[in-house]
């Protein structure tokens, strides 16, 4: 099946080199996540609607007139068409609905103010066969961008949107996670994160706000489930890259923030637990634009830092940050790939060096660090030795830190050999071969094994 899907992608993408590898890496999410033995499946190349762009207006995301309330309060819902999952020659098909529910719900900003955030919920078409009520997995997507048009709920597999290869928004192929979990009878909730789709700056990699958006997505799902007369079951968190950071932040925060939720597990692939280390790694890479996402998010929540940083930026640097605030991930490599942040400052220093010299910058970066608390449930972390995007050591260190606190953490090195500079993208696939069974085991109440066993 994987070869069939990848062959289709090669034919459809018509690309080569680094960009082609990135497309293949993202497309492989769907290939490797398919848990059916059927061969020859193809991706469900999706809708005929035009790709959502930055200037497109969708009234659903207009929060004017809405008053965010208690965390998890559902503010608005609408049903949306959902792309069909792939089918094989024998007719096998993943069990997913043809419509899902978009939702806007309340969460809590870093400073404690309520804020509206959007997302969507996939209600499986097959029963849950485990004990208890149907469980819910909250998925945090990897880095999709900072513009509102990049939000997961505004892209494939929703709203008749073009498939991720045709649209260029290949990270949207993480929508394949929906198929696998829903096919096992697990409800799926995907958050857009704060400021993605909804008004305001997306606060990229803000530890507290990503945690709250994940946790309150579960609370919102509980409300919708109970409104239909059903009972809500256990909860798990899942994510790769930015989503891995959101998942670990959520499982670390949930005991204090939402103790009423029955959280049974979390999975994190390549979590950026130490943001400073990650920024040093990607400065000068094809994904250097993600540093701009981080700076824009910090500036939105730390006004003193924003004012100080502005005095050190060049005119070009200010233009870059403004431009990045409206971009999706597929655009940043083409526009700013392989620049260094010293090209964005007036005196040629890199942004991570500047942040380390500004007291408010040090405080802001420290407050995003994951690992200062303890996870509320068994957690699996996967990190790749050949990951050139999210530094290997800092994710492994997170697992070791939690283990030293007595937490039940299962750690795995990613299984892939070095594959050019694409290991990070491909780990969305390879890591899932660990992560999905891990969470399914937690939902089924099976014992956790192999905790705190680190490879040499």
Automatic annotation (TrEMBL):
One record GO biological process: lipid catabolic process
TM segments?
none
> Which InterPro entries did the record assign?
AB_hydrolase_fold, Lipase_secreted
**E.C. designation(s):** 3.1.1.3
Top class in the EC scheme: hydrolase
Gene Ontology terms, MF aspect: triacylglycerol lipase activity
Q: Which UniProt keywords apply?
A: Hydrolase
Q: What is the name listed in the Swiss-Prot or TrEMBL entry for this protein?
A: Secretory lipase
Which species does this protein come from?
Answer: Corynebacterium glyciniphilum AJ 3170
